[in-house]
């Protein structure tokens, strides 16, 4: 079948032809223009460099003979010759001979010197030396100009009748007389020079047919590479053109009609006494460029004719023919012919298109066959679909059951949480009401201890829930820090031992040596795991023993085995053991308490520490929990010592607790705006042997910290003039690198993160916790812990009672300020005052004032005026009640 030319082929040819021809024409024109310009620029560069070199060569040549004439004029022999009367005594002949020797030595040193003539002021020759033995000239044609000029040095170019040019250098000779105001002129030195360098320079040429000229200021050709035109004059118009070209300093086209009628490219520079001119015929310069232009034009014409044809042939073979073939095959498929198959093509996109077309036809054919098969087996398909639906229904019922079970677990967990939270809250609220309303209670310390114990239990519940939420959100983080293994086990023993003693259980600690002295892990999280499981072992054991065994595994893992003789578990209970919100069974919660979160949290923490928790248990026999964690030893045999003997199992004394409290010398700055808080913090620090400096605001703190050397700064975050946050940032930018402890009533996580980001090392909450403050001082100052009873001593001390009385005496002032700010509507100042009262009231254990001030401050942060008067009235009532109670006689 002969394929006819398609319309697409004709359109493609119409598009290709202009798209190829126009760029080629543009390229050809650009090339021709560029060849001409580049030829001229290249010639301009070559000519300018050549002329500059010749100019410099001539300048150096003339400079050397000017220096020679000047040097000769200062010769001691010449001065001695001129210092005496030439014919006064008999030494004239001797002095003349010596002078001739000097002239001869200069002539030998400079072969271009033809003669040296010593002339008197009136033009008479007193001494003459010539290398060609000629006699002294009677006069020089330029001598009148020399006598009329005041220049000490002059030069002249004189052309002879035969066309050769000589150089003359004239140097005045002076006699310096110190008794005269000006030196006396004694004569002239005249050097007659054969300009060999000038002749050589003129004959050099950067191109063939180059004509070099040295033209005088009058237009006379003194030197020329064409000997026949020496001595000729160029016209005044041509001289002006040469002068202008010398000023411009570039290659230009002019015609020197005085020499010939040829159009030349000329480059000229001005020299002393004339111009140096280099010329080349324009036709010679552009001859090579014309040849390149002709070749370029020929290439463009051939490309214009052949490229469209070649492109059309290539495109037709690569695209048009396959497209036509694909169109014919598609038409056949449309008519129902599924036996079409395109031939194998190349691996390019067209080949992929052919393969996809063949695949499409095969798929259509395959689907048609399947359709026929479906028609014959429709009943089987319906039956199988019915069975699939039944299977899905059973899976759905199972999922519904699991959802209901999960809902029951959630309800049971909420019930457990409600019970666990309400139990300590009932005790806290009950004993608190008794302490507030019953003045006859005598065992206050016992009730306060009960409140504190139930508060800690409530805090543990909340921490467990938060830990679980962090684990599920994958936001809980563990760290790696050096951890002393023996000290860790002794800390666990000190916590579990009292629990075991209360239930009369035997607690045993077993070390399987060797053990690493130090591992790298998260001490807090590891303690949380071990305390949780060990306390569970004690809780679920009524009699018998609890043991903790420590092993070191070759896989660089530390293994803790906690075994008890408690109630034990069956297999079904073990499977649910690490599921959140679940315990062994419902009776476990009622009998032993707990939330069912501890083991779930512990297992997740162990996995994050590079290990795991496994359990083996037998009902009524006991349970065995195995905890493994990664040791993360960098070089286990070198940097991490192993404990090999039992006498090494005594825990080392903590270096942080090795200093006597009364002998520790530390310079501390406390930035706090509340006077009562200042006195309280100062009293605490004085109890530990520390005498702090006090700053009333952030600005004072910055100034004092930059002047003094403080080992630690305690910084309140909200102060007048400048807040603690801004002061901390300024100190860090000022290169203060000591620890800064934030002191604030705002201790939410995002607030603490803000303080740490600003440069604080730690954040302490208001009201001040003595243990937390002491822990920070121990951590950062290596301060030894003092007696735990010192806190009670402080509260009973006369100084604290005085500080407390001063604070109560200031309460009426706070009361008046609150009422004034409420009346004026100044909510910003009222919020700052509430924050100040909250911090100080908490420090002195006025809880009602603390909570009322905190609620008022939080409400003012939201910029809402609803319930503002009620919250302000509550704070006023709380302050008035404290004032009333403190005014009663004791």
UniProtKB/TrEMBL annotation:
Residue ranges of domain HAMP in the record: 317-369
Protein name stated in the entry: histidine kinase
Occurrences of domain Histidine kinase (ranges): 416-633
Signal peptide: none
Species: Pseudoalteromonas nigrifaciens
HPt domain mapped to chain residues: 796-890
GO molecular function: histidine phosphotransfer kinase activity; phosphorelay sensor kinase activity
Gene3D superfamilies the UniProt entry points to: 1.10.287.130, 3.40.50.2300, 6.10.340.10, Histidine kinase-like ATPase, C-terminal domain, HPT domain
Catalytic activity: ATP + protein L-histidine = ADP + protein N-phospho-L-histidine
Coiled coil: 364-409
């Amino acid at each position: 079948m002969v394929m006819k030319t398609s319309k697409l082929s004709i359109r493609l040819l119409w598009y290709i032809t202009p798209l190829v021809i126009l760029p080629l024409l543009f390229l050809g024109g650009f090339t021709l223009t560029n060849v001409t310009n580049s030829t001229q620029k290249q010639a301009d560069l070559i000519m300018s460099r050549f002329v500059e070199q010749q100019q410099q060569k001539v300048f150096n040549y003339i400079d050397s003979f000017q220096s020679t004439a000047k040097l000769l004029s200062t010769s001691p022999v010449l001065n001695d010759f001129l210092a005496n009367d030439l014919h006064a005594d008999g030494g004239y002949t001797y002095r003349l001979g010596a002078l001739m020797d000097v002239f001869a030595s200069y002539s030998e040193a400079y072969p271009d010197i033809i003669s040296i003539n010593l002339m008197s002021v009136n033009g008479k020759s007193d001494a003459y030396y010539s290398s060609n033995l000629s006699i002294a000239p009677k006069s020089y044609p330029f001598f009148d100009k020399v006598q009329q000029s005041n220049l000490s040095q002059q030069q002249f170019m004189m052309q002879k009748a035969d066309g050769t040019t000589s150089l003359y250098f004239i140097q005045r000779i002076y006699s310096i007389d110190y008794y005269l105001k000006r030196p006396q002129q004694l004569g002239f030195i005249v050097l007659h020079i054969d300009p060999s360098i000038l002749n050589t320079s003129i004959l050099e040429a950067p191109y063939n047919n180059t004509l070099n000229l040295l033209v005088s200021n009058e237009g006379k050709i003194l030197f020329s590479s064409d000997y026949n035109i020496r001595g000729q004059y160029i016209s005044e118009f041509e001289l002006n053109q040469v002068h202008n070209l010398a000023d411009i300093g570039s290659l230009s086209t002019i015609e020197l009609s005085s020499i010939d009628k040829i159009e030349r490219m000329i480059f000229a520079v001005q020299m002393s006494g004339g111009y140096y001119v280099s010329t080349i015929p324009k036709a010679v310069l552009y001859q090579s460029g014309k040849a390149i232009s002709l070749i370029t034009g020929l290439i463009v014409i051939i490309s214009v004719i052949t490229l469209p044809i070649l492109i059309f042939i290539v495109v037709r073979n690569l695209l048009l023919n396959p497209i036509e073939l694909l169109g014919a095959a598609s038409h056949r498929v449309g008519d129902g012919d599924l036996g079409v198959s395109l031939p194998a093509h190349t691996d390019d996109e067209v080949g992929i298109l052919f393969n996809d077309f063949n695949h499409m036809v095969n798929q259509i054919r395959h689907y048609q066959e399947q359709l026929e098969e479906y028609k014959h087996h429709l009943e089987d398909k319906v039956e199988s679909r019915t069975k699939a639906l039944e299977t899905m229904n059973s899976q759905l019922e199972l999922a519904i059951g699991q959802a209901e079970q999960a809902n029951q677990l959630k309800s049971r967990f909420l019930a457990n949480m409600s019970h666990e939270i309400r139990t300590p809250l009932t005790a806290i609220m009950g004993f608190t009401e008794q302490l507030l309303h019953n003045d006859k209670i005598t065992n206050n310390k016992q009730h306060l201890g009960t409140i504190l114990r139930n508060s800690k239990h409530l805090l543990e519940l909340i921490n467990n829930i938060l830990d679980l939420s962090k684990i599920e959100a994958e936001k809980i983080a563990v760290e790696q820090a050096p951890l002393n293994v023996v000290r860790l086990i002794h800390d666990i023993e000190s916590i579990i031992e009292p629990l075991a003693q209360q239930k009369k259980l035997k607690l045993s600690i077993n070390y399987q040596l060797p053990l690493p002295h130090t591992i790298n892990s998260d001490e807090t999280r590891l303690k949380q795991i071990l305390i949780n499981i060990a306390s569970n072992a004690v809780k679920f054991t009524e009699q018998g023993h609890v043991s903790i065994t420590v092993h070191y595994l070759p896989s660089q893992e530390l293994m803790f085995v906690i075994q008890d003789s408690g109630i034990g578990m069956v297999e079904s209970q073990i499977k649910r053991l690490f599921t959140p919100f679940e315990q062994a069974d419902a009776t476990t919660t009622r009998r032993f308490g707990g939330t069912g979160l501890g083991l779930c949290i512990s297992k997740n923490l162990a996995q994050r520490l590079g290990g795991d928790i496994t359990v083996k248990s037998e009902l009524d026999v006991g349970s065995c929990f195995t905890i493994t964690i990664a040791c993360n030893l960098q070089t286990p045999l070198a940097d991490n010592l192993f404990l090999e003997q039992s006498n090494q199992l005594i825990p080392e004394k903590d270096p942080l607790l090795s200093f006597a409290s009364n002998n520790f010398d530390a310079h501390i700055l406390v930035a706090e705006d509340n006077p009562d808080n200042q006195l309280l913090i100062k009293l605490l620090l004085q109890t530990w042997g520390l005498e702090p400096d006090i700053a009333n605001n952030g600005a004072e703190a910055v100034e004092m910290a930059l002047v003094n050397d403080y080992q630690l700064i305690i910084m309140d975050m909200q102060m007048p003039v400048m807040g603690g946050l801004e002061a901390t940032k300024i100190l860090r930018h000022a290169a203060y690198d000591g620890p800064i402890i934030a002191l604030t009533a705002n201790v939410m996580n995002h607030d603490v993160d803000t303080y740490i980001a600003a440069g604080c090392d730690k954040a302490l909450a208001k009201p001040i916790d003595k243990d937390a403050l002491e822990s920070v001082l121990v951590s950062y100052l290596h301060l030894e812990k003092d007696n735990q009873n010192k806190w009670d001593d402080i509260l009973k001390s006369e100084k604290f009672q005085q500080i407390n009385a001063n604070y109560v005496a200031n309460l009426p002032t706070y009361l008046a300020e609150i009422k004034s700010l409420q009346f004026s509507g100044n909510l910003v100042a009222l919020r700052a005052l509430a924050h100040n009262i909250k911090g100080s009231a908490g420090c002195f254990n006025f809880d009602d004032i603390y909570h009322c001030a905190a609620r008022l401050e939080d409400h003012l942060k939201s910029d809402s005026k609803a319930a503002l008067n009620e919250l302000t009235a509550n704070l006023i009532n709380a302050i008035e009640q404290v004032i009333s109670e403190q005014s009663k006689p004791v």
